[in-house]
Specification:
single chain; mainly alpha
Length: 121
Amino acid sequence: MVDDRSPDDGSESGSRLDDLFAVFANYRRRYVLHYLREEGRASIGGIARQLAAWERASRSEMVSGELIDRIELELFHTHLPRLREVNLVEYDQRTSVVVYRDPPEIVRALLDLCTDRDLPN
């Protein structure tokens, strides 16, 4: 039997899948998920430092403070709210701690597929 529902038929699962793919379309959001999958929880500053290091393919102590600040602002205003909307992270603004939530299997599979492509050796 062929599924003839249109992509915008308002179905919960279709919409959820679209939201997850939209999250994975951005490399910084994937970086956040890679990092939190390993760490479980981290401060925004710690996440920003690691993302800057991955982007520059260097150790986190060797990245400029300006880049880290820029990434931290982008995380706060853009990426963390988006990840929170799809229930992949929890964020406590009071403590600036981000916690990785137990994701659905598709998120784990997508992260596994992206790891080699995304992260420097």
